[in-house]
Model the fold of this input.
Amino acid sequence: MSFFNLKNIKISAVASAVPTEKVLVESFSDRFGKEYIEKYMETTGVKSFRKTKKNQTASDLAFVAAEHILNEKKIDRDSIGALIFVAHSTDYRRPATACVLHKRLGLRKDCAAFDIGLACSAVPYGLFTLGSMMESSDIDRALLLVGETPNKITNPEDKSSCMLIGEGGGAFLIDKDTSDTAIKGISGICKSDGSGYRAIILPAGGFRNPDAPDTVFEWMDGNKRSLYDVTMQGDDVFSFTISDVPRTIKEYLSIINSDISSYDCIALHQANRLICQMLCKKLKADASRMPLCMDRYGNTSAASIPIVLSDTYGEREEDEIINVLMSGFGVGLSWGVCSAQINVKDIYPVIETDEYFKEGIINSPEDYYKE
Amino acid sequence: MTLDEFVKAFAAEFDDTPEETFKADTRYKELDEWGSLIALSIISMVDDEMDKRVTGADLRNCSTIEELFNLVESK
Done:
């Protein structure tokens, strides 16, 4: 069992950021045919998504979200004892992107900073890891940052993915609270099924396939991709999602002796509309409590939970504590569910930004020594 | 669920292919309308109606609707 219960940990703020460029799924009609696009939008629910500038990365989006929280909440940066960045879309092969974010956010050296290599399941895994670290250390405050830029690794001829995925980043401010307040405690379950490691995979660019050619192949599903593009076996991901994910959520609810109807918000990874609707049905959840935002942002992988929270509650300025159930699932295969109470006032609206870390661009030795 | 019912349920997931096209020995991947989106509908239909899990590989490995039905039944 991989059940966790962090009694003294709470989410004190949530923010998210997306790039300004909006890509309309309709604009793919010339490439894939109008009829296909209409069916595609109907099934996936994606009508448009955001796309980063060439040098803008997932960490830039997470950075903007984190800065917003630190500034709005007037947080003393020296109080941040840990920073975890959960993403596959890293800035470099090394160092950890969390270290670059640590510098950019101006955090002190007494701060544990590292990356976790997960994407769609980022939020439950990130909360589990960071919260457990805090419970067993003297760290009282930390940042969980997430982000993904899947457009950069998707072949534009791959109609299984190129219109589904959007780019975004998110930030959670996490506090340890040993007082007797109503709003604390995060519990959940994290699971994996490594037998599905190929279900969503980018085969080249790591260390396993140093000889991978950059040839664009036609794959069995009729799509064109190189080994440097992400390959998704959509039907396998789908069948995993509609069976393992609801089973895990039900298992979790039974462990904590709770019921789906006790949540004000069910913030699911915005995989696609069909998947979310299937999950809603299987969980016998009230669809009005399961917000969807993939119509405007697409499937933003790691960032989809903070984005859907921002999209739903960002404009709310009154105090209201909501019970939130969050579930992320996908590449790995890796999935998790967790719940927390959040004050809607602490959830900020989605920020649009094209800001990027110019200093981080190193295309020549001159660029490297410039710093 | 009987084979006949399965063929009917299978056919119901298609919008453009006439129902009478579907027989137990229909090679579904050769239908014009077959594609990744229909595959998802079939997976969710089997999940809904039979509470069984069909994988992408199952859909690739079977040729006819009957083969798929037998495979699902054996799970």
Q: What stands out?
A: Chain B has four helices and no strands.
